[in-house]
Structure formats: C-alpha cells, structure tokens
C-alpha cells in the first residue's frame, strides 16, 4: 500500500531561518535519540555490571567509528546527489540515485560485518587495551558488528529521507529504536545478567527495527524517491557520482576516526578508571556533537537543493543562519553540561576516580564546542555544492594529522591525561580557522 505524504519539503523558497531550523530540529532530536540509546548501554552496564565493563563499552566507540566511517561517507554522498536532483526536478536520476545508494549500503554492510568481527581483537590489542577490559571489549564489538549491516542500511535510508526534506521520519524511527533498545538493555543486562553481550544484542535488534521501518516507508511513499526492491542495483554512472562526492567524506571520517583510536590508546595507558571516565564523558559529549553534525547535515541539504536550483544568494544567506544556530546551541549546552557535570557522570558510575576523570574531560571540552560548531557548519555548507574534497582536506589536517603529531610529539611533555584532553579544543580551533579561510577565499560556489 502506498503512502501519500506532505512531509517532503524543498527548501528553495521561503524563510531561510525557519526552513533550516525546522529541518534541523528532527535531525537533532533523532541524533539525540540515537545517542540516548548508545548512552543507555553505558549507563546500564556501568551500574549493573561494573567499571571494567563500562570501560569496555565506552572505549569501543572510536573503533566502531573507524570501521563504519566509509559507509557514513557514502550516505553523505548519496544525500547530496539526491538533494541536488530533487532541487533540479530530475525524477529519473533521483530514482537511479536512491536505488544505487541502497545497493551500496547493502554491500558495504556485509563487508563491515565480516571485517569488524575478524579485526576486532587485533585492533584492540594494538590499542593497548588493558587485560581486565579486553575480554568484554572483544565480546561487545564482535556482537555489535554482527548486526552493523542494519545500521548502514538505516543510515542510507535516513540520508535519502533527509535529502528530500523529510527528516521527521528519521526521528520517528529512531524514537522507536531508542525505546526498544533501552527496554532490551534492562531486560538482557539487568534481567538476564548478560553483561556487555546484552548491550550489543539490544543495539543490534533496535538498529534492525529502525532499518526495516525506514525501508518500508521508502517502499510505500508516493514520491520521486519511492523505492522498489526490484530496482535496487548499482547504476554505473550513479555509483561514480556517489563515490566522487562521498569518498572524500568517507576517507575523512576514516582517518579522523583513526586519529581518535590513537587518542583512545593514549587514554588506555592511564588505566581502566581513566578509560571508564573518558568513555562516560564521550557519551555525554555526543549530546553536543550530534546536534552540531545535525546542523551541518541541514546545511548540506539546504545548500544542495538551492545550489541545484541555481539560487546562490540563498546559499550565502544560509551560511550565516547555520552558524548562528551552531554557536547559540553549543554555548548553551556547554554551560549546562559544566553546571550539572557531577550528577551527569554519576549516572554512569559511583566510582569517584571514574567521575573525576570525566569531570576533568568536561573542563577542556565544554567551553569550546562553538569552535567545532563553526568548523562543521561551514564544512556542511561547502559539501552541499558537491565540493567535498576541500572540507575533507581541512578536517584531515586539523582533526587527524594535527592530533597524530600532538600525540607523538607534544603529549609526552605533559605527563598527565590533561595533555590528551586539551588536544581537542586546540584541534577544533585550528580547523575552524582553516575552514573560515577557505569559505572566504575559495571558489566553492563556482561550477
């Protein structure tokens, strides 16, 4: 049965601030829900299993991001292409892009499932994961990657929906997944005492459900981007276009994630309490980072549609609107996180040493999130024109190369974990300056 919808909105006419804001809100809420069920794993594990298990789940984040980074780039590339064809009212190419994107997601998901399950232990050993944490980390990650194909398919489907201006659907399905995940966490961890295995299985099931719901909607919706399972295949010219746009973002995500793995390795050297405290705060950190990325995604879609329609002045105005929203949000949430740092961290663990490590991380992160907001806001804007290489280069230099050099050359001079924490705002500031210079002086608005 088909679904008629008025949820799909092109942003080529009307109030720019209103359109970006109301498109961003479902993205933000959706990403916060996704972060919520990831955080629920850590909270429930930390309270019902222990600090070592919390360290295992928390420290897995950087490795998960590393292994799924390329698929995230592919979904960004597909979203840009779909939004541009929608803006140009080219139904045939919208259909080709949508079906090619889903085929790419399926194949990437299978590759990541196999690769993640095989490579988990060797990489964890290279990350200097302590022996008391290693067993739980391997169990959690292998089970997580057993279901990662559902995560990849959902993200691609959500990218298609967001490109069409239908971000509310992504929010709805993530809401369902979040509720199911938290329920299953409590059932499997507290009820059946399955430990970190229960957390991973709960995540897999919730991602499966959100992926199925998104695909079913795409099959039933009456719109240019409606999906037919029989048509899902790789269109050669569209694969090339999606890779051209998405590959730089995928490489960027992978290399930045690799640098974060190195940073996590440095944290691991300070013991299980440091791992648990840093891991707990990184879950809280996600409630700031994910909305920053949501505003960036909204800017990419807005620019993609308006650039495709040839409305360059709207693109330029959209930059300032996006930056204002990024800065206001990050300053507000940074203040709130600092104010309520103690009760927030104690949700994960009552261990004083774990809480103290988390609060120390907050000291260096929270006041400076606006730097990251400006960096990603401008990167998302440029990316919407299909020019993904310049943002990739800038993010690689600032958030990867700079961090690697810091870990190798400067961190040993500190002699404490504070040298790891201060790296983040310094790299954000460096990237922001480079991105401002490119946006100001670059020729990204020219075809």
From TrEMBL:
Keywords: Cell membrane, Membrane, Transmembrane, Transmembrane helix, Transport. Its main location: membrane. Signal peptide: none annotated. Coiled coil: none annotated. It is a multi-pass membrane protein. It is found in: Cell membrane. The chain crosses the membrane at residues 20-37, 57-86, 98-120, 140-164, 171-189, 195-221, 242-267, 287-307, 319-340, 360-379, 391-409, 421-440. InterPro entries: MATE_fam, MdtK-like, Membrane_Transporter-Flippase. This is MATE family efflux transporter. It comes from Blautia ammoniilytica.
